[in-house]
Amino acid sequence: MTLESFINEAISPWMLEDGPDKDIVMSSRVRLARNFADKLYPTSGNKEALEEVLQFIKKNYIKEEDTEQDSLTFIPMKQLNMIEKLVLVEKHLISPHLIKHSDYAAVLLSEQEQTSIMVNEEDHLRIQVYYPGLQLKKALEEAYYLDDWLEEEADYAFDETKGYLTSCPTNIGTGMRASIMLHLPALVLTKQINRLIPAINQLGLVVRGIYGEGSEARGNIFQISNQITLGKSEEDIVEDLESIVNQLVEHERMARQYIYEQSEISLEDRVFRSYGTLKNSRIIDSKEAATCISNLRLGIDLGIIENISENILNELMVLTQPGFLQHYANKALRSDERDIRRASIIRERLNLKK
User: Fold this and answer.
1) Has 193 been labeled as part of a binding site?
2) Is 126 labelled as part of a ligand binding site?
3) Mind listing the pLDDT tens digit for each residue in 302-324?
4) Residue 210 assigned to a binding site
5) Interior CA angle at 153 toward 65 and 40, to 5°?
6) Is 211 marked within a binding site?
7) How many degrees, rounded to 5, is the angle at CA 137 between CA 158 and CA 99?
8) 31 among the known binding-site residues?
9) Phi, psi of 179 (to 5 degrees)
10) Which of 23, 53, 179, 252 is least buried, going by the fewest C-beta atoms within 10 A?
11) What is the homologous superfamily of the domain 1-16+30-173 according to CATH?
C-alpha cells in the first residue's frame, strides 16, 4: 500500500462493515502501550535512542517475504508534510502526539486501516485495533494477536508486580485503553447527558470528545474509555466498559423514541433544516457542519429521511476536517477558505445520495 491510498479516502474500509448497535456505537477500539526493556523511552527525547527503535522496527518487522503481517505498511512521519499528518490524525490512524517526534516516529498501517501501530509516540509502541459497532472483545483478541507477534522479536518492559511499564504512570499495568465512540444526539437534546457523564466518571471511566483528550464533543459524538489500567485484567476492563455502553445505548434509544413521540414535528423540522443547510450552504464552519450532520444522521436512523446512506455522513465527519480540506485543495487554506470549501464538498457528496 502507498501513502496516497491511506490519505485519499476519508472513510476507512473497516467502517463500511456492519457491527452491533452501529447506529449508535460508531466504533470500538483497543490500544496497548508497550516499551522495549533495553531502550530509553521516547519521552526522554534522546534522538539516538529514538532512531535506534525505528531501525529495530524496520529490521525485525518490515520484511520483503510473505508473513502473517505482510499487509502492514511502514510510514515514517518525516516523509509526510503537515497536511498529510493532519489527515492521518483526522482518520484516527495516528495521534497528535506522534507528530511531536516526527523525525523519529512512524506508523504501521493495515490495508483496511483497522490496525495502526504507532512507533515512538509516548511509548515505543502504541498498538491500535478498530472494529465497527460494539465489538470490544473482538478488538481485544486482535490486539493480543498483534502483541504476541511483536513480542516474538523483543523483550517488553514488564514488572511482575506493576505489569507493563509505560511512560505515563496512568497506563502502567495492562497498558490498555479500551474506548467506544458513540453518537448520542437524543441524550444531548433531552439534557440527560449532563447527569450521565458525572455518573460514568465515578465508575472509573472517562468521557471525551471525538479526538480524545482535550477535544470537544462536536456532532454529539462522545468517546468513552477506561481510566484504570492497574489492578484489573484486560478482560474485566472490557467487560465493565461494554456493560456501561450497553446501558448508554439503551438510554439513547429510549430518548430517541421519547423525542419522536412527544415532539415529532419539532424533530422533523430540526432534521430537515439541517439537511437544507448542508445541501445549500455556500459557507459553513466545522462546528455548524458537525451539528447539522449529527441531526441528519439522527433523521436517517429514525427513518425521517430516506435514500441517504449513513456511510456518507461518516465520510463527511472526516472529509470536512481542516487536514482533508487542505489535502484536496493541495495547499494550505485560511479559515474562511476552509469554510467555503467545506460547504462545497458537503453539497457535492449529498447530491450523490449513496
Assistant:
1) no
2) yes
3) 999 988 888 887 889 899 999 99
4) yes
5) 125
6) yes
7) 60
8) yes
9) -140, 150
10) 23
11) Glutamine synthetase/guanido kinase, catalytic domain (3.30.590.10)
